[in-house]
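Translate structure to sequence.
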């Protein structure tokens, strides 16, 4: 799972050639701080590296590319339309993969069906929020904030499943928060025309 959090690195790096963004020392520092926090929380061992390790990295690269190029759309394109059309293509591609590699697994119960519907709705609104945010700001500015998903995941795990791995949360969560605070601090100090 930790390799999937290479996404902010890719978003920050891709912002330079695709968007012409200036990414300075402080923004890269925030990305590194956030990722170091993820490493501390996940506590990966040597088993993390295998032939399958490339898959989450490729997934992070694809996600980062989509997060970056959404900024290229003209402002008269509605974010909801962009999100809907991208989801249509995702469904079509998923069906092709399913037909090529998958097998039919029926939904076990009505309860599971409602859970899937809930996942779809929450995920759809979440991605729509990301599309809007990435269109309104510089992707490399928002990328370090994605690391906040780790402490939120741990909080939700505690609320819904009574899992409380607090011993793994610190000090990594402090590095994640520090990365976000660096971005906020630099954004407050920077002039609109100066990159950081």
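Result:
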């Amino acid at each position: 799972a930790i390799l999937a959090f290479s996404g902010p690195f890719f978003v920050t790096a891709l912002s330079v050639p695709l968007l012409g963004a200036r990414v300075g020392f402080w923004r890269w520092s925030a990305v590194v701080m956030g990722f170091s926090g993820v490493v501390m929380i996940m506590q990966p061992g040597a088993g993390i590296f295998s032939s399958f390790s490339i898959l989450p990295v490729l997934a992070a690269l694809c996600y980062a590319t989509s997060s970056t190029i959404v900024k290229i759309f003209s402002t008269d394109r509605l974010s909801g339309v962009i999100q809907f059309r991208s989801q249509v293509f995702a469904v079509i591609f998923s069906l092709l993969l399913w037909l090529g590699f998958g097998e039919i697994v029926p939904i076990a119960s009505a309860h599971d069906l409602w859970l899937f519907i809930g996942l779809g709705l929450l995920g759809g609104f979440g991605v729509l929020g990301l599309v809007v945010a990435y269109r309104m700001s510089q992707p490399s500015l928002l990328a370090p904030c994605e690391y906040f998903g780790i402490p939120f995941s741990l909080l939700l795990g505690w609320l819904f499943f009574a899992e409380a791995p607090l011993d793994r949360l610190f000090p990594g969560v402090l590095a994640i928060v520090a990365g976000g605070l660096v971005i906020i601090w630099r954004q407050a100090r920077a002039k609109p025309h100066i990159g950081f």
